[in-house]
Amino acid sequence: MPDGETKTQSTADARFGRGFLHDIWYFAALGSDLKPGKLQRYELLGEPILLGRDRAGKVYAIKDICPHRAAPLSAGKLTAEADGAPSVECPYHGWRFRTDGACAAIPSLVEDQAMDVSRIRVRRYPAAESQGLVFVWISSDPRFDGEPDIAPPVFPGVVGGGPKLVDRMDFDSHIDHAVVGLMDPAHGPYVHQQWWWRSAKSQHEKAKKFEPRDMGFSMVRHEPSKNSRAYAILGGEPLTEITFRIPGLRWEHVTVGQRQVLSLTCLTPIHETRTRITQIVWSDHPAFLLLKPFIAAGARAFLRQDGDMVNLQNEGLRYDPALLWIDDADRQAKWYQQLKRERAASRKAGRPFQNPVEAATLRWRS
User: Fold this and answer.
1) Beta strand residue intervals within the chain, DSSP E
2) For residues 258 and 151, is the Cβ–Cβ distance under 8 A?
3) What is the structure's pLDDT at 359?
4) Which of 217, 306, 317, 349 could make a disulfide contact with 357, Cβ separation 3.0–4.6 Å?
5) Sign of the alpha-carbon dihedral angle for 95, 98, 101, 102
6) What is the pLDDT of residue 237?
7) pLDDT tens, residue by residue, 162-206
8) CA distances from 49 to 41, 74, 138, 273 (A)
9) CA angle in degrees (0–180, nearest 5) for 251-257-259
């Protein structure tokens, strides 16, 4: 990629509400969403991506546009070459592409028409499956054909078999606004007013310790707030730690003795003004056997209340106003922006990422 494009991309990566972070793993799907042989079309960061699983069980991702006449490859079928390697056949003219992006065949060519079809390629996106989750690496260089220099994230508390709850929703929002809304500690009493959670009248002063973590930060393990009633269903003496990692992963790991609950929220940018929120919960706590319908209903209500507020916020954001950030309630939002800038700057300079977050105790009322 020419230097000018690299600089433009790096600048766009750092602006709030514009552009995206590149050279990083994005959550794309649950492993259970991908069936062997099935071709599925996704859009990540405004790029059409065919995400699939070959018949041997390996996940792969390639650009979902045939370079011949732009037909979506996901409308075709998975086939196999003479050497047994899987390939995707375009539905328009039957061009076939291996799952590494290399063209394997152009059926319309006749015998004396010499052409090295392997020189034709569609973009390949590194894909990895970890803990039942599928991540796709989006490089700033569309010609990147190597392997990422970091592994996908690994989360504590993936216990009890498969997820106990999965919920998805698309927010009409840039990922930056979705992230800041997700980590905002002060909106709860106003946006999430349920009898089993809290009300606007039930507000306490909070003081929470934060520490840097790998490409993010964590509210270190602590007892849940007394006015957060939902934790009561777990019984015992629950302790919780809430962690955020760029580009848009937030998880709460709760322990109650030997039992665990992990609530993971993945933010995946579809394009500039739409972000997919995927909420996944694992647990080996018996409450998720006895009270699963009630817990699921509560989680759905939370997500949709946040979605309603995003839509309301968009009424103001369409005028592109300057935003006012305050300490300490908005410190996490500031950290997020610093983390984004550092990630973009470190990749541009070819140096190791240096976490800009410093340990601190933040105080707010909610």
Assistant:
1) 24-30, 39-44, 47-53, 59-63, 77-80, 86-89, 96-98, 103-105, 127-130, 133-138, 165-171, 205-213, 216-222, 239-245, 249-256, 259-271, 274-283, 360-365
2) no
3) 97
4) 217
5) negative
6) 84
7) 999 999 999 999 999 999 988 888 887 787 766 545 555 667 788
8) 6, 9, 11, 18
9) 55
**Locus of tokens 């997919």:** 276
Within the chain, which residues score under 70 in pLDDT? 1-14, 193-202, 225-230, 232
DSSP lists the bridge partners of residue 209 as 361
Please provide residue 86's backbone torsions phi and psi, each rounded to the nearest 5 degrees: -70, 150
Cβ atoms of 243 and 222 within 8 Å: the answer is: no
Per the listing, tokens 């099935």 go with 38
Distance CA 353, CA 139 (A): 16
In what order do the strands lie in the sheet containing 239-245? 165-171, 274-283, 259-271, 249-256, 239-245, 216-222, 205-213, 360-365
In which residue are the tokens 């309630």 written? 329
What per-residue confidence (pLDDT) applies to 8? 39
Tokens 């349920």 — which residue? 194
The set of residues, in sequence order, having a beta carbon less than 8 Å from that of 233 and lying 6+ positions away, is: 287, 291, 295
**Amino acid identity at 52:** G
| C-alpha–C-alpha distance, residues 166 and 9, integer Å | 34
Query: Could you report the per-residue pLDDT of 336-352, keeping only the tens digit for each?
Result: 999 999 999 999 999 99
Residue 165, beta-bridge partner list: 281
Q: How far apart are CA 273 and CA 111, in angstroms?
A: 48
Answer for the pair 223, 317: CB distance below 8 angstroms, yes or no. no
Query: Taking a C-beta distance cutoff of 8 angstroms, is the pair 217, 248 a contact?
Result: no
Task: Kindly give, in sequence order, each residue whose CB lies less than 8 Å from that of residue 264, ignoring residues fewer than 6 positions away.
Answer: 155, 249, 250, 251, 279, 280, 281, 282
